[in-house]
Amino acid sequence: MEFTASQIAGFIGGKIIGDENALITGVSPIESGETGHLSFIAQDRFAHYLETSKCSVIIVSENLLSKDTYAPTIIAVKDAYLSFQVLMNLYQEMQGRKSGIENGASIHETAVIGENVYIGTFTYVSEKAKIGEGSQIYPQVYIGKGVKIGKNCKIDSGARIYDYCIIGDNCVVHSNTVIGGDGFGFQPTPDGFKKIPQLGNVIIEDDVEIGSNCSIDRATIGSTVIGKGTKIDNLIQIAHNVKIGKNNVIAAQAGIAGSTTIGDWNQIGGQVGIVGHIKVGSQVKIQAQSGVNTHVNDKDTVYGSPAISYNDYLRSYVHFRNLPEIVKRINNLENNSKDKTNE
Amino acid sequence: MEFTASQIAGFIGGKIIGDENALITGVSPIESGETGHLSFIAQDRFAHYLETSKCSVIIVSENLLSKDTYAPTIIAVKDAYLSFQVLMNLYQEMQGRKSGIENGASIHETAVIGENVYIGTFTYVSEKAKIGEGSQIYPQVYIGKGVKIGKNCKIDSGARIYDYCIIGDNCVVHSNTVIGGDGFGFQPTPDGFKKIPQLGNVIIEDDVEIGSNCSIDRATIGSTVIGKGTKIDNLIQIAHNVKIGKNNVIAAQAGIAGSTTIGDWNQIGGQVGIVGHIKVGSQVKIQAQSGVNTHVNDKDTVYGSPAISYNDYLRSYVHFRNLPEIVKRINNLENNSKDKTNE
Amino acid sequence: MEFTASQIAGFIGGKIIGDENALITGVSPIESGETGHLSFIAQDRFAHYLETSKCSVIIVSENLLSKDTYAPTIIAVKDAYLSFQVLMNLYQEMQGRKSGIENGASIHETAVIGENVYIGTFTYVSEKAKIGEGSQIYPQVYIGKGVKIGKNCKIDSGARIYDYCIIGDNCVVHSNTVIGGDGFGFQPTPDGFKKIPQLGNVIIEDDVEIGSNCSIDRATIGSTVIGKGTKIDNLIQIAHNVKIGKNNVIAAQAGIAGSTTIGDWNQIGGQVGIVGHIKVGSQVKIQAQSGVNTHVNDKDTVYGSPAISYNDYLRSYVHFRNLPEIVKRINNLENNSKDKTNE
């Protein structure tokens, strides 16, 4: 990457203060700027970096500017945060998409591969799998029998997608995530546990992103479903027959047990556990590390293990921290009471 | 898959009510039945689906039937749940096992491969490894030096089995699980941590199933052991020198720290943590998210972090939720007491 | 492995009591010794195994010896634990390092590979990647564009290292760990979440070891950093822009959210969660399963969810367990108070 201040100002419609030929070759957070790098300042509390940053070019929200000249070259815009986003997206697009089938990929003759698809070396595509137009399948991916992947997806190295699972358009699956492994279903018998065949699949709707090292199990029968636009972080467990709605955000290391249903627009914190066979509504917030063991209504915020109302949990926790003091007060009351009795 | 109602009735010894030629091409949960699909009803609370399901054929426990005819074709049996299991197992078996060595597998010349073994493309089998009769090793698996895998195992794509680990017969290891990585052992020194070599292995006994993305570390010396018939869900951590007995069920994202011993027939919930160097008995239940930091006796049920008796935890938690009210009562008592003193 | 007692005594400068030709072919923990195996006794509480162990040769701290002869051959040393470590390290070194490029690795013509590097079959090395002298890259690893790996590293099978990430010297990355996956960053809009490009990288300094199945995300801009000498167990989540200092030990299944800064020499327990945008000092201990949601000062020990001072948490937890009794005492006080009022 190598751009001049004036090229960047052109991309985002900004006004240059300083050297329009200043060259940038990288991007830094403002706290750790480097010579030759670009950064941005969108908040008053970072404005002091205008005086001290080593960055060569800084995009700044115009209301934060008060002087005529600064050491770095400034690109003044209305909202530096938004402009910087625009720039990052543009840069990402410039990287281009990969396409073409690399040597050393193993693709079954009955698989159907769309136009402009990229398939990396050491990727294995099983019989009757379909990969939609413009999708990029990185090296060392496993794609099972009859899997369908939509258009413009990105499946990273080492992801495993088992037989008959379906992935929509514009999805991202990061490295080493496993989609469609067997659900955890066993019948107890006196001699041990007998496996219950897991014959369903996983359906992932459009615009879903799934982080690395996640496990999303196939349904026993029917489908485990991840709804449109839902974003899933790393190391997350989604058990068999779970149904997740649209536009949820689920943070790292959360786990959802079998057959639970989750609505839309929920925020589920890191390391949260949700038991099986319950219903979580929509617009719910579940605080990190909570253990949800009962239905949750729309718009509730819950916390604790087992989870209760967020405010109730915090109010109780304040007293929990104060329990030694509370017990002292009870001791005093008892002593006073005895004193009175002994009077 | 394509069967007629009369073929299915034949498999499970059921009696047809309706069209014996009704054709099914898939299976649905009864709550979301589809035309052309098979489902089952084994409980009274689902009996109303007899009137509304779109399924073409439904297997029903005979005691739930009251009419002479229904819209879907009915297959009446004694216990619809059991009959459906029989059918699913049958269907699974019909899928067949893979066998043969695919082109592009890398197998060391000193490795010993049993009869009817399947080894997929991009799988790497190291020197002196042994793979028993009928086992299926999917593509992209790594098998280290001197590893022994028994008969009729299934090792899914991307699993890694490190040097000298031993796996019994009829085991299943799901995708991206790592067996025999180094235990987490370091000696602190003033200059930093010095690695303690991890020279032991992992022994997995017969009939064990291990989910996806698990980490089961090799022993420092000796063996980390998973006992016969134990079933392990996804994303689980088993540290070095842990010994797990027979027929345990361990739910997703649980973790067991080094050198801990676990008996038989235990149920360990999701996201449970168990500290190192303790002993958990047999027939113990550990509730989800509990943190076990001390020995647990046979047949105990524990909960909480740190974990205590399940009933005690719940009783205390009720009061925890009620702490604001409890503190108000103490305030009142103190006020009354002062009032009396001031009288 | 096959050594005589006198060879072993030679390695560690020990004195033989018994048969100097006793042959050992393996190593056992003293609790489960086997004929033909070596073990060690460094503590008084294991000294009784001198009489009962089946091991052929035992290294023993000399102060634990009281007789002239024992059934197994004894190698007497000053500190049996240290001598045993020396021996294990020696044995590990004898195993040798792998080197050479195996057939079937895919290495871009612009990649720069140092001397004595091992690259296994099915490993994919992208353009302009650099791998330093003596490093071992096992089979089925993915190395992205412009990645730099230092000297004498070991990258295990199935690890994924994404574009432009940097790894120092003497690092170990275990199987299926993902370094440099996208950070979890999305902009909420009324139509759903819009991905924020993750354009930074991950920098891993020298002497770092990272367990299996970890996810270490690349920074949005700038770098996610793991400091020199830090050791990370399995299944751990490190989010974008986290900065971790030197010589930390982080136990399995812990998670650290975005932009948090961690000092040096901390001990972070298993399944700990640390929220984003906070600062944890140095020499801090965080107990297992704790949820840290605020800054932590140097040398503090914290526990609980949310985490508070370790001692405070334990003191409160004692009363938590006793809450039913405490509530009874309040009931009594209220009854007494009523009695008095009614007098």
Automatic annotation (TrEMBL), chains A, B, C:
Catalytic residues as annotated in Swiss-Prot or TrEMBL: H240
UDP-3-O-[3-hydroxymyristoyl] glucosamine N-acyltransferase non-repeat region domain sequence ranges: 23-89
Keyword Lipid metabolism: yes
EC category name: transferase
Pathway: Bacterial outer membrane biogenesis; LPS lipid A biosynthesis
MF annotations from Gene Ontology: N-acyltransferase activity; UDP-3-O-[(3R)-3-hydroxyacyl]-glucosamine N-acyltransferase activity
EC id: 2.3.1.191
Keyword Repeat among record annotations: yes
One GO cellular component, as annotated: membrane
GO biological process: lipid A biosynthetic process
Coiled-coil regions, chain positions: none
Keywords linked to the UniProt accession: Acyltransferase, Lipid A biosynthesis, Lipid biosynthesis, Lipid metabolism, Repeat, Transferase
Catalytic activity line of the entry: a UDP-3-O-[(3R)-3-hydroxyacyl]-alpha-D-glucosamine + a (3R)-hydroxyacyl-[ACP] = a UDP-2-N,3-O-bis[(3R)-3-hydroxyacyl]-alpha-D-glucosamine + holo-[ACP] + H(+)
PANTHER family hit by this protein: UDP-3-O-ACYLGLUCOSAMINE N-ACYLTRANSFERASE, UDP-3-O-ACYLGLUCOSAMINE N-ACYLTRANSFERASE 1, MITOCHONDRIAL-RELATED
Function: Catalyzes the N-acylation of UDP-3-O-acylglucosamine using 3-hydroxyacyl-ACP as the acyl donor. Is involved in the biosynthesis of lipid A, a phosphorylated glycolipid that anchors the lipopolysaccharide to the outer membrane of the cell.
Family: Belongs to the transferase hexapeptide repeat family. LpxD subfamily.
Quaternary assembly: Homotrimer.
Protein name per its UniProtKB record: UDP-3-O-acylglucosamine N-acyltransferase
